[in-house]
Design goal:
This protein is of the alpha/beta class. The chain is built from seven helices and five strands. It is found in: Cytoplasm.
């Protein structure tokens, strides 16, 4: 089963987790990381790293963030490059997580990434999708090597 790390500004992540648990019961391999004003990015990264390791049993972890480009998204993006089967999703909402919850047990991380973006909710994207739209910078010199 895919682990979930819900990470949002203020208390939103914890509220989403509590609401999901009220509906579905205790959620295994699921943690909330709240990003409070004044929290250092170093501390945020440490909290998210702990959550990653607590939720990953080998099937992969999905970081579910509220805003693309914000501190939780950036921290998750940096971690995702160091871990296999790790995805970063932005623009999440409670209704979207309620729809996607049952798919945690049946999809791999890449399938989950495509499924959550395919839901078509406004503002939902993934790090992978963003990188496909904006490929990494390549020097022209590197393109013309013989």
């Amino acid at each position: 089963m895919l682990g979930w790390v819900i990470t949002c500004h203020d208390e939103v992540a914890q509220e989403m987790l509590l609401t999901l648990e009220a509906r579905f019961g205790p959620l295994a391999q699921c943690r909330a990381v709240n990003y409070w004003r004044g929290l250092s990015t170093n501390m945020l990264s440490r909290m998210m790293c702990d959550a990653l390791h607590e939720t990953d049993t080998g099937d992969g972890v999905i970081f579910l963030t509220d805003r693309a480009g914000a501190a939780p998204y950036r921290s998750a993006a940096l971690m995702s490059h160091k871990h296999d089967n790790c995805e970063v999703i932005s623009g999440i909402s409670l209704p979207l997580l309620e729809v996607m919850y049952p798919l945690r047990a049946t999809l791999n991380s890449a399938e989950f990434r495509h499924a959550i973006v395919a839901q078509g909710m406004p503002g939902v994207s993934s790090l992978w999708h963003q990188q496909k739209k904006n490929p990494p910078f390549v020097l022209l010199h590197d393109l013309y090597k013989h």
